[in-house]
Amino acid sequence: MRKYRVRLPLLVHTDDGTYGQGEVFEKDFSPGDELENLESGLLELVPSKYKVVGETQVHGANPGEEFEAALPLGQEQALLGSHIERVEEPAPKPRKKGGKS
Description:
This protein is of the alpha+beta class. The strands form three sheets. The protein has a three-stranded antiparallel β-sheet. The mean pLDDT is 91. It is built from two helices and eight strands.
């Protein structure tokens, strides 16, 4: 899933909730639907982390280096595997509950 931020003062309804301006949510769009939402100004793509796995520089990063970019889905799909790979962010650690036992 990819992360998006609502840019306009409108509500965006998804299967898991409703999001207002400035809020971030995760969703799987088709490349066409994503492009339409980005070009309309409704949504902004939240940058993801990538690692260059190919032999050429990508977005200013040399082979083996990591970079952050908001790559539209079509561009990401063209680069994944042979040029870049996603760097998954570690899951947040669960909070410890207060109180002594």
